[in-house]
């Protein structure tokens, strides 16, 4: 039963636990918890791992670009970068060549650590997606992208 009878539900659902937003958040929380657990064993956090993944794909990303890619604020991304740099997993110039951007690059140790942890993180994703029938995977990813794009407008 609706608390506010004039509020129309976005789709047929018995209660809030069946709303798309709730189910997405539940899945995200479960993924984050599983990732936190395995990354902790490797001395990393989810934002640190995501930063290593993006720098492996796109060397030289700036703090602002990494913040957007890893869903954290610029201030948080700067803390993550500083921690990874202090751990010897990436390098950044002390001063920017131009503007304020200081491009980050993985060190050999950073690439090694990423390779060690990828197997554990990818195993989580395999567990997550193996419950989805293969013929529905592309549609699921497309639908999730559409949801994100719609809400980012």
Describe this structure in words.
The chain has 153 residues and is mainly alpha-helical. The protein has a domain at 16-117: Arc Repressor Mutant, subunit A. The chain has 6 helices and 2 strands, in the order H-H-H-H-E-E-H-H. The chain has helices spanning 20-40, 46-57, 63-70, 74-86, 108-129, 134-152; strands at 90-91, 105-106. It has a two-stranded antiparallel ribbon.
What would you say about this model in short?
With 153 residues, the protein is mainly α. It is built from six helices and two strands; from the N terminus they run H-H-H-H-E-E-H-H.
Percentage of residues in strands: under 5%
The name of the CATH architecture of the domain at 16-117 is: Orthogonal Bundle
Low-confidence stretches: none
CATH class of the domain at 16-117: Mainly Alpha
SSE arrangement, N to C: HHHHEEHH
The proportion of residues forming helix, as a percent range, comes to: 55-70%
According to CATH, the fold-level topology of the domain at 16-117 is: Arc Repressor Mutant, subunit A
Strand order of the largest sheet: 1-2
Question: What is the terminal separation in angstroms?
Answer: 32 Å
Helix/strand-derived category reads: mainly alpha
What number is the mean pLDDT? 91
Number of helices: 6
What's the overall geometry? Answer: globular
Keywords: Plasmid
Organism: Streptomyces nigrescens
Pfam family, one: MarR_2
Domain HTH marR-type: 17-149
């Amino acid at each position: 039963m609706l608390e506010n009878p004039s509020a129309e539900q976005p789709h047929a659902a018995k209660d809030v636990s069946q709303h798309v937003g709730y189910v997405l958040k539940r899945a995200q929380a479960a993924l984050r918890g599983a990732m936190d657990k395995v990354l902790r064993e490797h001395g990393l956090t989810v934002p640190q791992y995501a930063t290593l993944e993006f720098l492996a794909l796109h060397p030289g990303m700036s703090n602002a670009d990494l913040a957007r890619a890893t869903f954290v604020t610029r201030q948080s991304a700067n803390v993550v970068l500083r921690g990874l740099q202090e751990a010897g997993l990436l390098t950044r110039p002390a001063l920017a060549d131009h503007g304020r951007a200081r491009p980050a690059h993985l060190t050999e140790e950073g690439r090694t650590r990423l390779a060690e942890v990828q197997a554990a993180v990818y195993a989580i994703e395999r567990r997550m997606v193996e419950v989805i029938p293969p013929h529905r995977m592309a549609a699921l990813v497309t639908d999730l992208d559409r949801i994100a794009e719609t809400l980012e407008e």
